Amino acid sequence: ILLRDYGVNISEGRILRLLKSMTLPKMSTIKPRFYSNKSPEFSSDNLLKQEFNPNSPNQVWTTDFTYISIGPKRHIYLCAILDLYSRKCIAWKVSDRIDAKLACDTLEIAIKKRKPKEPIIFHSDQGSQFKSASFRKLLDEHQLLASYSKPGYPYDNAVTEVFFKYLKQREINRRTYHS
Predict the structure, then answer these.
(1) Residue 141 belongs to what H/E stretch?
(2) 86: phi then psi, degrees, rounded to nearest 5
(3) How far is Cα of residue 15 from the mean position of the Cα atoms in its chain?
(4) What is the predicted pLDDT for the residue at 21?
(5) Residue 94 to residue 146: CA distance in whole angstroms
(6) DSSP alpha helices (H): ranges in 31-132?
(7) What residues have CB less than 8 Å from 132, skipping those under 6 apart?
(8) What 3-state class would DSSP assign to 63?
(9) What SS3 state is found at 163?
């Protein structure tokens, strides 16, 4: 900005040294948190507790969203569901909207594929899509036990986060998508 607007060419290191010598107060880099007075209408417990190695298939499923760029300032959203036993993606769906419908549609695909008989722990982050009434209803209809990560703590859903990391690193970022 200094170079563009004022024609002054200066490095970041020099700026930091000058600011330090002026003994200016530090600027906050901590994101403010806003807390709601409303209590949740349902349990948002973490049933998984970072136990990422179930004994058999269809015991724990995890999910999350990621985005894929399809041109300048355009994205589509991918919702994927993983079975923690095999670490395989059992269902996925892409949409131009990141909403509860995308989450519900992906869950229905997983249920149709796997036809679970026993209750399954279904773990996700605290996204509004996973806490929506339509998604909660779908979980209840199929005896899936909702489990949620702590807010802003991706380590509780680490397997899904790593899946997306490698998907992007090895496939998505190596290509250019237009649609």
Answers:
(1) helix 133-141
(2) -95, -15
(3) 36
(4) 85
(5) 22
(6) 100-114
(7) 100, 103
(8) strand
(9) helix
What DSSP designation does 86 have? T
pLDDT value of residue 16: 78
Number of Cβ atoms within 10 Å of the Cβ of 54: 17
CB 146 within 8 A of CB 136: yes
Contacts of 160 (CB under 8 A, 6+ apart): 62, 63, 64, 80, 82
Q: What whole-number distance in Å separates Cα of residue 131 and Cα of residue 116?
A: 21
DSSP state of 168: H
Residue 160 to residue 121: CA distance in whole angstroms: 14
Question: Strand ranges (DSSP E) for 26-143?
Answer: 60-69, 75-83, 88-95, 120-124
**Tokens, residue 47:** 């049933």
Tokens 């949620």 — which residue? Answer: 148
| Domains annotated on the chain, with CATH | 60-174 (3.30.420.10)
Q: How far apart are CA 60 and CA 103, in angstroms?
A: 17
Report which residue type is found at 34.
F
pTM assigned to the model: 0.74
CB atoms near residue 135 (< 10 Å): 21
Splitting the chain (179 residues) into consecutive groups of 10 residues, what average pLDDT does each group show? 78 81 68 61 75 91 94 91 95 95 97 92 93 94 92 90 94 86
